[in-house]
Design goal:
This protein is α/β, with parallel strands linked by helices. It has six helices and ten strands, in the order E-H-E-E-E-H-E-H-E-E-E-H-E-E-H-H. The protein has helices at residues 20-27, 64-72, 94-103, 140-151, 199-217, 219-233, and strands at 2-6, 32-36, 50-51, 61-62, 80-91, 106-111, 116-117, 127-130, 184-185, 188-189.
């Protein structure tokens, strides 16, 4: 997969793109990340990418010309999605990550900054994505989150593919508790069923833990899960 990031701060990504599973995946060529700075496409001597908003207001607004030029400089693959990272976008969730990882070979991520961006920049994007109902200083943080979430789903990134099937949100439920050695730590003991060797009992325990956790911690997800089960039985 080719991921192109339109960003005023390419250095923001340097360490993260070289670390952990993400760094290994990029090193193996499972995905490539291309960082493009709109400043390279400015025509004034100061390489200005922002200006004062029409109608007045606080802060500066990202200009459309350098952003359009940056996107239009990119190669175009057949299955491409252009995404604008903005608090007004669709909340990023696991199903969206799965869609992007499965159905596209090129993602173009546009990172906003300053007070906002010129409204006409929205015409570049096929969709808008948000991390949630809050505001950050820049679009690089959600862009990096999206990159991480998508690349880890690509074949070859995660060693044990089955591990992707049993984590939070994959089945509409939160993940079950995990334990490792020692069996007792500060009076907290690993549940006996996990040490029993009875794989059927372990699977049943884990499933029940998923149900209990989701109901208690995320009643919104629990309700969606109940509705999805109801729809399947109708």
């Amino acid at each position: 997969m080719q991921i192109d990031v339109i960003t005023l701060f390419p250095d923001f990504f340097t360490s993260a793109l070289q670390s952990s599973l993400l760094g290994k995946a990029l090193a193996k060529g499972i995905a490539t990340v291309n960082l493009v700075n709109p400043r390279q496409f400015t025509e004034d001597k100061h390489h200005r990418v922002d200006d004062e908003p029409y109608g007045g207001g606080v802060g500066m607004v990202l200009k459309p010309e350098p952003v359009f030029a940056a996107v239009e400089s990119l190669s175009i693959l057949p299955r491409r999605d252009i995404i604008l990272l903005t608090p007004q976008g669709h909340p990023l969730n696991q199903s969206l990550l799965q869609d992007l990882a499965s159905n596209y070979e090129q993602l173009v991520l546009i990172c906003g900054h300053y007070e906002g961006f010129d409204e006409r920049i929205r015409y570049l994007a096929n969709r808008e994505v948000s991390l949630g109902d809050f505001v950050l200083t820049c679009g690089e943080i959600p862009a990096l989150t999206l990159i991480n979430g998508v690349v880890r789903l690509l074949p070859g990134t995660v060693g044990k593919v089955d591990s992707l099937k049993y984590e939070s949100f994959e089945a509409g439920l939160l993940d079950y508790p995990q334990y490792t050695r020692p069996s007792i730590f500060r009076d907290w003991e690993v549940p006996e069923v996990l040490r029993s060797g009875n794989h059927q009992a372990i699977e049943q325990w884990r499933y029940q833990q998923q149900l209990d956790r989701t109901q208690k911690r995320r009643p919104d997800l629990w309700q969606k899960w109940l509705e999805s089960r109801s729809n399947r039985t109708q």
